Every structure is written in structure tokens, then in C-alpha cells.
Amino acid sequence: MLVLDEYASFELTVKNSRFLAEAFAVDSAEEAREKLREQKEKYADASHVVHAFVVGPSGGVQGCSDDGEPSGTSGRPTLEVLKGTGVTNVMITVTRWFGGTKLGTGGLVKAYTESAQGVAALMVTSELVEKTSFEVSIPYALYDQVKILFDSVDVELSDETFGEEVCLRGQVRESEAAGLEASLRDISRGKVGLIVCDEEES
User: Fold this and answer.
1) Cα–Cα distance between 181 and 149 in angstroms, integer?
2) Residue 196 pLDDT more than 60?
3) Are 113 and 40 in contact (CB under 8 A)?
4) How far is CA 114 from CA 53, 132, 154, 178, in A?
5) CATH class of the 131-201 domain in this structure
6) Of 20-29, 149-158, 167-176, which one has max mean pLDDT?
7) Mean pLDDT, residues 181-199 taken together
8) What is the 3-state secondary structure (H, E, C) of 137-176?
9) Which residues make up the CATH 3.30.70.240 domain(s) of the chain?
10) 3-state SS of the chain: helix, strand, coil percent to 5?
């Protein structure tokens, strides 16, 4: 699977109706709903803010809405385009400003499909890398050595707490977690190991 690296947008005008398609990176269905609320507030003058999203390591969590357009004419076509990209953790919104001329169901499907295809073609993506969240407590004497180790395997640190020991929290590629664990035990003579965290705790 791929993930979206940066925001993208595409505009289309059909019979004076303006369609603005935008692509955003989202990590969950909840984040997609929050982004949709933001979009509706931002474009309060629009006729409709249609959306579709795909999230999860294999793109298994999906959703869409027609936002008042005739059923099946907008949200579903947008989702079908999104599913065809192979991109996950992504949301497309298509905002429409009605231009005074009705497009009919076929015209709506075409307009929303083309809008979604337009922004999909502009999306900059990269390979999804599965990561493991962890925490580890180390003596101060090992801090510099552990930081060098973390840099060598591209660990993303999210928090450092300095108490009786140093507690480090972060993420590492799933494929490198076992090797990192072994290296930590090696430099600490078996006293330090990774504690793998659930995603909700990370």
C-alpha cells in the first residue's frame, strides 16, 4: 500500500458548477470525520461537501457520503476512484458550488468521478512502512550510546522523560524491532529491552 505525502487539489467546472477536489492524509476514520467538519466550516457557502476515505494498513476501513447529492452519484464514485489508487490513510473531499444548471445523475457521477481522478493524478505518494511503537528505560550512562543506536536504525522518538532513568518512547520499523531489541540487550548486558506499546498507548 501507498500513503499520501502531501496535500493535493484539483478544480473542475461543469455547466457553471465548480468542483474542488482535495486530498488529505488521515490516520483514522475519526480523523477523517474531523477533517470533514473542518471542510464544511471552511466552505460554508458551498452546496455540498462530498467525501470518501480509506484507512488502515491494508485499506480495510472505508467510508463515503453524498452529502445531499442524489444517492450513489458522488460519494461512491469518489470512493471507487480512491480504492483504485492503492493509497491508504487518505481522504478526498469534493466541494461543489451549484452553478444553476442541474447535471442529472449521470452528469453528477461523471463530474465527481473526474474530480476525484483529477486530484488522484496529482497525489504524491510513498510506500507505507509498518512501524512498532515502543518505550524503553535506560541508565543515564547508556543514553549517548542508545541515541547513536537509535539514529542508526532510523528510530522516531516522540518523548524523552528524565527521572531516575531516561524513559524513551518512539517508533521503529516493524522489520527492525527485533534487531533493535537485540542491540539494546547487547549494549546493556541484558538489562534493557524494548516494551512494545499498543497503538492506543503510543
Assistant:
1) 11
2) yes
3) no
4) 17, 38, 39, 45
5) alpha beta
6) 20-29
7) 82
8) EECHHHHHHHHHHHHHCCCEEEEEEECCCEEEEEEEEHHH
9) 131-201
10) 35, 35, 30
Dist. CA 157–CA 135, nearest whole Å:
9
With bands split at pLDDT 50, 70 and 90, how would you rate the model's confidence at 198? low
Query: Does the model's pTM come out above 0.85?
Result: no
Position 128 scores a pLDDT of 87
Give the Cβ contact number of residue 12 at 10 Å: 19
Give mean pLDDT, residues 66-88.
Answer: 97
Sheet holding 125-127, edge to edge: 87-88, 2-4, 125-127
pLDDT at 132: 86
Q: CB-based contacts of 47: which residues, under 8 Å, 6+ apart?
A: 68, 96, 97, 98
CATH 3.30.230.30 in the chain, residues? 2-127
| CATH number for the domain running over 2-127 | 3.30.230.30
Q: How confident is the model at residue 195 (pLDDT cuts 50, 70, 90)?
A: confident
Dist. CA 110–CA 108, nearest whole Å? 5
